[in-house]
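retry 2 of 3: previous attempt timed out while embedding inosine 5'-triphosphate. Reduced batch size to 1 and resubmitted. Inputs unchanged:
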Amino acid sequence: MDKLLVATTNRGKLREFRQLLSQMGIQVLSLDDMPEKIDVEEDRETFLENALKKAKTYGDFYKIPVIAEDAGLEVEALDNYPGVYSARFYSIPYGGVEQVDGDKDSANIKKLLRLLKGKENRRARFVSVVVFYYPDDFGLWTEGYCYGQIIDEPRGDKGFGYDPVFVPEGYDKTMAELEPEEKNRISHRGKAVRKLISLLSKIYSTPKSNNITR
Ligand code: ITT
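retry 2 succeeded.
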């Protein structure tokens, strides 16, 4: 394998994947490098099903090995919402629709803080499910979690999404105040990708049993 497509439309995710995969020594392509664009609707009820759908659709269309991820934030006091709806939380009926004044990330955060106002339980976790798919051959998946708390006011300008309101366990900074390397070290995505790399390195270093050489 010399090329790998990271199939995400999210710039923040792409940046983190590039950094996490840099040690693999392969060419990492993004959807911008692909000649023809396709749309994949994320309409499944679990992270795994959504990630699988993205990986299979992109892999079968472009005919190259693909990594796709479905990720999100689960908040205990909100019945584990936003969950699989994390990217478009502002627009779903649960907790009422939030108007978008600036960008979608800000609208999502605004809604989250509104629903958590006055609530004592601020426990939350980020979830990442990463699927690797090698068209017509095999696929595998890994997952990673990062536990923490949701604070009252956004802080920091690094990262993306819900990072400014998420303080990881054992830290007093938000995820958006951490350097990218530090975020990757403890994040849900970092954990899932490191597991994936370790599995892939085992697969690619194991000689196939029918490769008989004299
Ligand atoms: P793709 O499906 O194209 O990869 P997306 O943004 O729609 O891009 P997801 O469906 O996985 O990606 O949605 C994940 C959402 O969860 C994302 O938009 C953020 O709001 C949030 N999220 C995921 N990982 C995050 C992280 O590391 N930090 C902050 N927010 C995160």
